[in-house]
């Protein structure tokens, strides 16, 4: 008998999320495609796990003490996660965010009681980048602690300790492939490390949006951006960071925003699941892997897991906004899912073996 007990704080609700089979895409590909429902976390995203683990490890090491202020630079979701955890555990929070991210995320950070500092969106080399700004703010006050989600491996550790084991258990250890985007690489790093430790034959795929440097890095060790750009938020990176380094990756894959739009709308209509934009890229990549390696291409049925990093409400102003998409020359009904699958089946295999050892 399961005994249900009440949680003592919001932070106690982080983790133990459901695994959902996407019936529509599973049927079309004769595979099993699952999403880990990270939008069920109290702050609504996969970053709640990283936020909690970073705070717990900082408390244990004595770097974070009662009454201190947590500072972090983020595209938004880590800020929301930290806001949930900070409030629950009695800290103040300052969040530094680049302008131009979804307004919904800015509003949530403030609603959760954190202070928001908006800076211009500039390249990493510029000292005013949100990352450097957060570090500087923290350095100026001895009562501030900088979470540093990119280099602080408590982030990937959260996924090694919780998300990876949950996925392994929820699939009875019978997983063929795990697919993930990367922002800091915490999710991909920690989960892939755990799954490879359990079964080295599980294939790990890193998926990257247009304009990011991860795919080229995995091929030749250099973070050269792929062509184009993407409206996805919080993912893609142009430098090697500690959390990404934890990854055990077999294949790199790059997919365009136009494919994400097709898949997101199909899943929305068929499964009633409204995906966020990075989640939609994850699911598109899972579809790609199912088509390329599964029965549609003469292979065995595959069991594939990916992450629903956050829910679609944080992507309403971009992924599900026809006027915004038109400004990017994307029409949401331009290609059917059948057409997309046929393309994935017949075009040159985009799954690229990782050549560069992390
Ligand atoms: N999706 C979204 C919406 C995110 O905000 C982030 C983190 N910025 C990610 C995916 C990537 O997560 P990670 O930092 O663990 O690579």
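Sequence proposed for the structure above (358 residues):
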């Amino acid at each position: 008998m399961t005994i249900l007990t009440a949680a003592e704080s919001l932070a106690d609700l982080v983790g133990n999320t459901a695994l959902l089979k996407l019936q529509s895409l599973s049927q079309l590909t004769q595979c099993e495609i699952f999403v880990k429902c990270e939008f069920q976390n109290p702050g609504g995203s996969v970053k709640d796990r990283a936020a909690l683990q970073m705070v717990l490890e900082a408390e244990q090491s004595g770097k974070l003490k009662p009454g201190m202020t947590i500072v972090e630079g983020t595209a938004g979701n880590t800020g929301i996660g930290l806001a949930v955890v900070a409030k629950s555990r009695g800290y103040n929070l300052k969040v530094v965010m680049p302008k131009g991210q979804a307004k919904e995320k800015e509003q949530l950070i403030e609603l959760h009681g954190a202070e928001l500092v908006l800076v211009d969106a500039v390249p990493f080399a510029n000292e005013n980048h949100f990352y450097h700004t957060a570090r500087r703010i923290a350095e100026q006050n001895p009562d501030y602690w900088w979470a540093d989600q990119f280099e602080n491996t408590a982030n990937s550790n959260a996924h090694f300790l919780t998300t990876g084991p949950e996925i392994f258990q929820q699939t009875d250890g019978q997983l063929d492939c795990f697919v993930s985007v990367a922002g800091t690489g915490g999710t991909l790093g920690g989960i892939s490390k755990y799954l490879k430790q359990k079964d080295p034959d599980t294939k790990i795929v890193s998926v990257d949006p247009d304009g990011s440097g991860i795919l080229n890095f995995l091929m030749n060790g250099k973070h050269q951006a792929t062509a184009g750009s993407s409206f996805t938020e919080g993912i893609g990176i142009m430098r090697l960071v500690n959390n990404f380094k934890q990854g055990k990756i077999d294949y790199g894959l790059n997919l365009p925003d136009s494919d994400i739009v097709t898949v997101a709308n199909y899943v929305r209509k068929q499964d009633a699941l409204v995906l966020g934009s990075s989640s939609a890229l994850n699911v598109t990549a899972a579809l790609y892997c199912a088509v390329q390696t599964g029965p549609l291409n003469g292979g065995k049925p595959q069991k594939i897991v990916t992450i629903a990093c956050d829910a679609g409400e944080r992507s309403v102003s971009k992924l599900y906004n026809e006027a915004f998409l038109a400004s990017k020359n994307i029409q949401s009904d331009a290609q059917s899912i059948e057409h997309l699958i046929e393309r994935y089946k017949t075009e040159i295999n985009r799954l690229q073996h990782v050549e560069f050892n992390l």
